[in-house]
Amino acid sequence: MGQDVEFHNYNGDAQLKKILGQVLHHLVINEGFATKDIVILTTTRKQALQNQMVGQFRIKAEPDISRKEILCNTIYHFKGLESKVVILVETESQTPNHQQLLYVGASRARHHLIILQPLS
């Protein structure tokens, strides 16, 4: 059985990166998850996160797990796949199928779901 859903609020990209870095650090260092077991999913491709260092981790569309890189992709591209830990970001999208898309993203998590949502 998995853990309860974890929610974090942020205000802007800088705070998103800070909180995401803290969450990733906690997952890998404190909880012992491998970087290959963590995926960041967005409703649309999050250019602000691609190829960025977030804390001690690099966020990539095609990560090298031996280099502390974390997969970041869209929910659409990750459909049908699973990960032990899923971190949903960009939850504020207002596309017509927004709720269904969030459900698909949330259902990709096998053990732990973390949602980072904007304050507005």
From TrEMBL:
Superkingdom per UniProt: Bacteria
Record-linked InterPro entries: P-loop_NTPase, UvrD-like_helicase_C
A Pfam family assignment: UvrD_C_2
Domain spans labelled UvrD-like helicase C-terminal: 72-115
Entry protein name: UvrD-like helicase C-terminal domain-containing protein
Phylogenetic lineage: Bacteria, Bacillati, Cyanobacteriota, Cyanophyceae, Nostocales
